[in-house]
Specification:
This protein is of the alpha/beta class and 302 residues long. Helices cover 42% and strands 12% of the residues. The chain has ten helices and nine strands. The radius of gyration is 32 Å and the shape is elongated.
Length: 302
């Protein structure tokens, strides 16, 4: 199936490539229409020197995406309803509960998740669903023996997530690229779901102020590291006013640093806010004439 927009033909059901940018907050907002087979998948790890400006950018970015729809933000992981009953039903639907039934399990988990009116779209989504499920199986099987129950649990979890978020991302406005923002710590299954959404045509941004290594995430996205890090703060709820120094104030500070640092010179108005007291000297009548022409001094009280 081919769409046409701004003189560009493209296959909306083909695989997507990573798109690079120097400003993910700006360019992810500008990628509004489906006119390319490139999508953003970025990680922002750590925090820049000016934390307040960074959190303001994140707040404004989220606010603009909320107004554009086709957008989901995950803060405390990806929510999942109780799936125990569904797991039991799918498990009992198979007479032979072994790994030879793996692809049939994934197929059944996909089919319960959503009714697709568009056959081409269903075929495309299903292809990516089965592909990611098999990728999880192959990756996990290298580390430990995968059981039939593990296959059912993963398939049902993925099908439930697809059922929960498909309409919000893909059906609100089909001419706008869906956006996903994930804020905070992420689990392995959630990384697979982000990869699935990217393969389905979503722009993805993962943000964490703590430097944590997610090898799986590094393999499928572009990573930008900031030098500083801190414990993950709550997602910003409002824009913070940030004071900025004028050029005049900066010049004044440079002069003060140059002339008054490590110096006995007094700054203008340095003693303005200090409390001064007059302390009379006690001396003999004979000393009066020798002190008469002596310069006055400000000295600490003893």
């Amino acid at each position: 199936m081919f769409n046409f927009k701004e003189g560009v033909y493209f296959d909306m059901y083909s695989s997507f490539k990573l798109k690079e940018t120097n400003n993910i907050f700006q360019d992810m907002l500008l990628s509004s229409y489906i006119n390319t087979n490139e999508r953003f998948f970025y990680q922002l790890i750590g925090i820049p020197e000016n934390k307040q400006e960074y959190m303001n950018e994140l707040f404004i970015f989220n606010k603009k995406l909320e107004s554009n729809k086709n957008y989901i933000k995950f803060e405390d992981g990806i929510p999942l309803n109780n799936i125990s009953q569904l797991v039991l039903e799918i498990r009992n639907a198979f007479k032979f509960k072994d790994l030879t039934q793996k692809d049939f399990v994934f197929d059944k988990c996909f089919n319960f998740s959503k009714n697709f009116s568009d056959k081409e779209k269903k075929k495309f989504i299903k292809k990516n669903f089965i592909s990611i499920c098999n990728k999880w199986y192959n990756d996990t099987n290298k580390l430990k023996a995968v059981t039939f129950d593990m296959v059912v649990n993963f398939g049902v979890k993925f099908g439930t997530w697809l059922n929960s978020f498909y309409e919000k991302l893909f059906l609100v406005n089909e001419n706008i690229i869906p956006k996903v923002l994930f804020y905070g710590d992420i689990k392995e299954h959630e990384i697979y779901f982000l990869e699935f959404l990217f393969n389905c045509g979503c722009d993805i941004l993962y943000v964490n102020t703590e430097k944590k290594d997610y090898l799986k995430l590094d393999q499928i996205s572009i990573k930008k590291m900031f030098e500083q890090q801190e414990l993950l703060p709550p997602f910003p709820k409002e824009e913070v006013i940030i004071p900025h120094e004028t050029n005049g104030l900066k010049a004044q500070k440079e002069v003060e640093d140059m002339y008054y640092s490590n110096s006995d010179l007094l700054k203008p108005h340095q003693l303005q806010k200090h409390k001064l007291e007059t302390v009379p000297l006690k001396f003999s009548y004979e000393e009066l004439f020798s002190l008469w022409n002596t310069d006055g001094n400000i000295r600490p009280r003893i």
